[in-house]
Each structure stands twice: as C-alpha cells, then as structure tokens.
Design brief:
The chain is of the alpha+beta class. 45% of the residues lie in helices and 12% in strands. It folds into 3 domains: 61 residues, no CATH class; 99 residues, no CATH class; 72 residues, no CATH class. It has 9 helices and 8 strands. Strand 5 and strand 6 form a beta hairpin. Helix 7 packs antiparallel against helix 8 and helix 7 packs parallel to helix 9.
Length: 261
C-alpha cells in the first residue's frame, strides 16, 4: 500500500518554489493538513524564505500552518467545503489509544499523533482512528467509502444526500418531478367558468348561457383527462348537466308558448 505522505511529497517536488510559496501563503485554507505538511517539508528542503508558522488569533502562540487548531482550542485553518458528507450509517467505536495505536497510527482527519491513553474513536467500516475533536468537527469518518455524495438544498441551503428526493431539514421536495407530482393541481379555469355560466343561466338567458356552459365544460373535461389528478371534474360535469337542462327547459317553454297562441 502506498504512503499518502510520500505520494504528496513526489507531487510537490515537481512544483517550482514560487508556486509552492504562493499556494502556501494564499491558499492554505483549501489544503488538507497532510498536503500542507508536504508543502512545508518541500520548502524546508529547498531552504525557501517563507514563514512556516501561523499565529493563533486568541493566544498569540505560533503553530505549524498545517495544524487545524491551536493548543488553546482556537481553529486555525478553515477546512475546505466537503463534496461528500459522513454517511448516517457510520458506526464509530470509542476507545483509548494503546501503545500500538500510538506508535503506528495517526488521526485520519488531521494526521496528528494519537497520544497513548487518549480518548479516540475508530470507524468500524474502514478501521481508521480519529481524535474526538476532529471527529466532531468533521461530523464523522472522512474515508470516501464511509461518505455519501451531497448537495445543497435549493430552499434552505443545508447539505443533504445527492440522491435525496426530500430535504430532511426543511421538508421541501428537491426533485422537480416528485415536487410536481405531489403539489396540488388547480382546477381548470374552464371548469369554473362553465359552472358559473350554467348557474347564471338558471335565472336568465339560459338559452344562450346553457350552450356556452356545455362547451366550456367539455373543454374542461378534455384538460382534466389529459392531466391525471387534476381536480374540477365534478364542476365540469355539473355545468354540462345544468346547461343541457337549461336548453331543454327553454325549448319546452318555447313549445308551450307556441301552442298557447
């Protein structure tokens, strides 16, 4: 198995000194502690004229730039925004660092030493060890196989699984197809208009408004049939029935008046 620190050293050994210094000074927040240590070591080898420390804003102590936090607890380096997040199925087992762990292992997040007798945790899936503070800061194990792809919820901006259909923070559906399928659909305007014309036609101009109500009701039914789950079928059917009755009643009235002459 290749040593990650050795791989990083080989990469940065090919960089020109000016680029190493520029990245170290201006972009240190975007690098992991292991990467910063590799850059520091390469700059020391080249005896580059650059300050390899960072001053704690709280206590003023000088710390290696690769250190994620000062001994006083102050965070010194803002970690890069994760593209992945710890899987909720992770199991982290608490334990104390024994001599074997202290001598052979390092924290899987900050790459710092694990002190003998220190309270640590171990991921039961990838078997990595972590400081308690590092685990809390990151939210769990940082191994790729122990994480899931994430994205930002477009509504509340919280991180959620990339394959999530619904945000667990705000409850909004983030999948467009699902959101459209569960959102209540509006009754077609034609169904409302048809019912209005038919009701008005009961009191006046039924011989005119009745046919209009039937035409609009039929158009509404066509829209409703083309969109499953669309409401308004009852209104459209009622308008058609009322409109038809108005036409029949008006015809019957005309016949009655004609026979009465």
């Amino acid at each position: 198995m290749s040593d990650p620190d050795e791989e990083l050293r080989k990469i940065y050994a090919e960089w020109p000194t000016e680029k190493l210094i520029d990245e170290y000074k201006n972009s240190r927040s975007g690098y992991t502690p292991a990467a910063l240590r590799a850059i520091e070591n390469e700059l020391r080898i080249r005896d580059a004229d650059v300050d390899l420390s960072i001053k704690c804003p709280r206590c003023g102590m000088s710390n290696p730039a690769s250190a994620p936090r000062c001994d006083c607890g102050e965070v010194l380096r803002t970690p890069p925004a994760p593209l992945k997040a710890p899987s909720p199925e992770q199991v982290l087992k608490p334990l104390k660092a024994n001599k074997k762990i202290s001598d052979e292992e390092r924290c899987g997040i900050c790459s710092g030493p694990l002190v003998l007798g220190e309270e640590i945790v171990q991921c039961e899936k990838c078997l990595k060890y972590f400081h308690l503070k590092c685990k809390d800061d990151f939210g769990g194990c940082n191994s790729p196989q122990c994480q899931v792809d994430v994205k930002k919820c477009p509504f509340c901006k919280e991180l959620i699984r990339a394959d999530a259909l619904k945000c667990r923070h705000c409850g909004e559906y983030v999948d467009d197809a699902v959101r459209k399928s569960v959102q209540p659909k509006e009754c077609p305007k034609e169904a409302k208009d048809a019912l209005t014309y038919s009701l008005v036609g009961i009191f006046c101009f039924g011989f005119i408004l009745g046919p209009i109500a039937i035409a609009k009701g039929l158009k509404a039914l066509k829209i409703i049939n083309s969109e499953p789950g669309c409401p308004g079928r009852g209104k459209a059917q009622a308008a058609i029935i009322i409109g038809a009755l108005e036409i029949l009643l008006n015809i019957a009235g005309f016949i009655y008046r004609f026979n009465s002459l």
